[in-house]
Amino acid sequence: MIDEFEAARLQREIQQYLGLEPAQLKFEFRELEGQTRLDLVTVNPRHQQCFLFRFETGRDEVACLQKMLDYVKRLRDTESSYTLQWRAHGDKELQTSYFRAHNVYEALDKLYFGRDLNTITVFSVVLNPSS
User: 6 and 53 share a domain?
Assistant: First the structure.
């Protein structure tokens, strides 16, 4: 049984640490091979597209949320920043999105999360300079 108050507290702390509004963040839990998986999904307020921020697995929702909080607190220390330019099928406007990832493939996986590969055309992927 999960501690709903602790789960809600951790969700708020993650949201605040990332500086996002509640409508810009989705916490999606599912059971996978005896473990709980949390997909943290961001919603871009400009074009309303959803992207995977990161996933974590654990014994329950609270464990996943604690791992996610630990991750967001050390985010800039462990991954590179990528800029992706893309366009959704049928749209005329080019979009720009930013992802933290270990490599270009992981950045693309986050962009394509939950959608058919044919729904988005990627025009460029750039590894941003680190400071």
Answer: yes
74 and 84 part of one domain: no
Per-residue pLDDT of the chain in tens (131 residues, 90 and over written 9): 568 999 999 999 999 999 999 999 999 999 989 999 999 999 988 888 999 999 999 999 999 999 999 999 987 678 999 999 999 999 999 999 999 999 999 999 999 999 999 999 999 999 999 86
Residues 42 and 96 in one domain: no
Per-residue HEC secondary structure of 66-93 comes to: HHHHHHHHHHHHHCEEEEEEEEECCCCC
How far is 59 from 53, CA to CA, in rounded Å? Answer: 20
pTM above 0.70, yes or no: yes
CA gap 104, 106 in Å, rounded: 5
Backbone angles phi, psi at 17, to 5 degrees: -65, -35
Query: Which domain does 17 fall in, by range?
Result: 1-78
- Mark whether 72 and 86 lie in a shared domain: no
In angstroms, the CA 96 to CA 93 distance is: 10
